[in-house]
Amino acid sequence: MSIPSGTRLGPYRIDALIGEGGMGQVYRGLDTRLDRIVAIKVLPSHLSAQPQFRERFDREARAISSLSHPHICALFDVGSHEGVDYLVMEHLEGESLADRLTRGPLPIMEAVRYGRQIAEALAKAHKQGVVHRDLKPGNVMITRSGAKLLDFGLAKTATAAVLTPDAPTEQQHKPLTAEGTMIGTFQYMAPEQLEGVEADARTDIFAFGAVLYEMVTGRRAFEGKTKTSLIAAIVDRDPPPIASLQPMSPPALERIIRISLAKDPDERWQSAHDLLVQLRWLEEGVDQATQAPKAGRRTRRDLWIGLGLAALVLAVLGFGLSYFARRDRPADSTIEFEVYPPAGAIFNAIDGPAVVSPDGRQLAALAERGQIVIRNLSTREVRALPLTGGAYDLFWSPDSRSIGFFSEGKLKRIDIAGGTARTIASVGDSRGGTWSQSGVILFAPAANAGLSRVSANGGEVTVVTTLDGKRESAHWRPQFLPDGEHFIYFSRGLTNDASGVYAGSLSSMTPVLLAQQTVAPALAPPDLLLSISEGSLLAQRIDTKRWKMDGDPIVVAENVEYSPAFGSLAASASENGTFIWQERMTVPKNTILRLDRSGKELGRFEEEGVFNLDLSRDDTKIAYQRADIQARSEDIWVYDLVRGARSRLTFDPAFEWGPVWSPDGTRVAFASGREAGPGIYEKASSGAGTEKLVFPSPLWVEPVDWSRDDRFLLYESQEGGGDLHLLPLQNDRKPIPLATNPGFREHSGRFSPDSRFVVYVSRETGQNQIYVQPVPPTGARWQISTGGGTSPRWRGDGREILYLHDGKLQSVMVSTSPLFEAAAPRELFDIGGGDYLVTSDGGTFYVNRSGEREPMPIHVVLNWSVPAQ
Fold first, then answer.
1. What is the pTM of this model?
2. For residues 382, 387, 393 and 398, what is the CA-based torsion angle, rounded to 10 degrees?
3. Is the CB of residue 249 less than 8 Å from the CB of residue 242?
4. Cα–Cα distance between 551 and 561 in angstroms, integer?
5. 452 neighbors 462 (Cβ within 8 angstroms)
6. Active site residue: 31, 134, 619, 723, which one?
7. Residue 830 bears catalytic tag
8. Residue 387: which of 349, 350, 351, 414 has the closest Cα?
């Protein structure tokens, strides 16, 4: 009998039954203390009285509690309530692998990716001394973040098998499990399990091979009409070769599965780690080329039929450098594969899409924290370039030997063969660059400026394009055409109707409108314009003689990443036919932790895509910026900490960012790039009424604090690479420069509670440091941090400044009367990543910790071309 909805098991409320099996039931529930959705596995009282079921239930709790891994379902709690024992686990959104397989086999590399994730989970479990012993599709969940391994109820120890020989199996729709007689599920048991031999890690590897076989082929590795015939198949027969069912599967995958399914445990992979190494090699290698084209791409349906033996050998051998020496291959030899980021990283397409080198042999991409990663497409070598953290907007030199990029208010270059980055010029919040054969770098020096040029070796910076102030707000994303003289760029209009793609030149050519666009395009040399329309990537030729678009656009890829706010389109191509693009990124689920002053957790709540949190002065509400990747928008939301409820504050389709509370909590100020006029707005925190434009600005601005005396808004502007200004809220509202050190970004400012001082961050010494200065500025200033710091905050009484250094919370006691004085910093605790807020009494902290983001691949197409019209 199921438990009624609304029933309480301790602090957990039952919502709905979501699964049922021999070991009880699984419910969707709510942790009422943390406002968190959970899965509650219940062992009913009639089973808890039986020792074998109670032991299995306890075994699962002990096994999962010893494991912490992204691909293992997490255990949160264990409890008992009025005779009902329960486990509280992570609630997973998705479907079981068993349910997914009812629709047929998985695409080859999707199967390999999930297989690698399962192998990672097994490797973690085995390292902790836990053998699963019941690995099967029903115990694997497919979620947005990948595969998750479940149900450790049979883990660790094995017992002898007892069989009923001739029970029919053909009418059973689910895999056979004999509770209390055999440990495991028949179709996935290793021969030694069937013989009653003690299970070890190699037993799980056999089951893994059977599961991966089924994922790839859509049919079970071993089948029989009765249990006896099924056992005979497992013990004596090998499954049909994968190639006979999936002809285009890579030989390496066949080998991995064949060794996993060896009858003799000594002939199998001897550890899950060995298996994992093989799967990583396969996943990261060019064997990915054997994956069939994805639906929606404009590739021939019979692409692989026309490849022939030579192309297959070429794929297995890593494509070879010979490919790149030939540019005249027939269209039939197009090859597609995917490149995944290094383990534990993601490719960050928002801060700068991956770009392919002009010779088509390498791609450069950004991993987390702006680290530049180079992937060689012929040798599969992956290298991280040194000292390039914080980089964004990558572009190649014409000889494919160097990378240009932006970082810390500078335009820089670095040779990929080695060495350190060189500074070429100072910039603001730049929006892209391009490098010509003649050694000229054309770049957008700021998000609100025209284009400038400079020698790739450094020197004088010269303006190339100027803005039409009546219709344009910026020129972004310049890209040279092959002649090195002409280029295209994106003109961001004051309204969407005024935005478009233009052609220009380094000499006297008057810019020519090629097409109206609202998102910056990319160039596929020699003359293809790549643009985005509702997630579809379009290609259209540029007539470079008449400077107009030629023919109709053609869809070349679907679900492509782009960012209207930063003008980036995640697609790139070389003239010899290497084409890459990136899928839309997923939104990570953030966890907002509530910690006390020792770092002990007091509670938490979860939200997706959360940035830029601000706490109301009465400590009851948090305003934050929330990203919606699919809608390509960011809005301001409010979370009520007392009621545990969230509400959306802004609804304009434009991006909104940087929310800050008014002193009395009745209003929220924020920045917006809306067509009605970009700048700083305010709105009633109740959501009533409309937004009011407080400070119009064509430049990028972001409010960072509101003074307690209600006299000023403190905001950051892109002027000077990032400066802090005071905006008076009365009279003429003329901004007052506060911290303006040209070439060095000043940011993260916060008013002291008495509104007499501002604490902020500056990098003028080459390292982020915390400073305090008076309001209004007098020229006085005091350095607070000693070894670096970010994210400063004041305690409500103004007697303490808090900040982060290497993720650790630092405390500095201060006195502001009669003179400003600061003590030495003292470490409190490690917040474990993310930004933070602090309550007015300095006793409670809210830490914004981002969840795991699904690694999105870079799609690579070799010998790519767009059909002539």
1. 0.53
2. -70
3. yes
4. 25
5. yes
6. 134
7. no
8. 414
